[in-house]
Specification:
Helix content: over 70%
Number of helices: 7
Shape: globular
Distance between the termini: 27 Å
Structural class: mainly alpha
């Protein structure tokens, strides 16, 4: 996953979109609490596009994964969503608000 996160802000759109699709596919079909810290660790990236995609992936996790997988990582998820709500990028903030509503459900 870290290699895919590094491809997200790539200027070659085919690489960036392929990385996004691959991570989305992994999140939809692999439900493991061990990958949540990887997403949180990569939220601190300098690229606003990477931060936006990470929050979109967190929102996807909150929508698709069973609650039992997320219960152990609630504090971590709250922290990353709270940081994203205060992000400089407006699209990241919008994604964080939708992830917040996913967390509240």
């Amino acid at each position: 996953l870290p290699a895919l996160f590094n491809l997200l802000p790539n200027s070659a759109k085919i690489m960036a979109s392929s990385a996004h699709t691959c991570v989305s596919f992994i999140l939809r079909h692999v439900h493991s609490g061990r990958i949540i810290p990887l997403f949180v660790a990569h939220y601190t990236a300098k690229s606003p596009l990477t931060r936006r995609r990470i929050i979109e992936f967190v929102g996807l996790m909150l929508q698709v994964w069973p609650v039992s997988m997320l219960e152990r990582q609630v504090a971590t998820l709250k922290d990353v969503i709270q940081r994203a709500i205060h992000d400089a990028d407006s699209a990241t903030r919008a994604s964080a608000r939708s992830a917040f509503w996913g967390l509240s459900d």
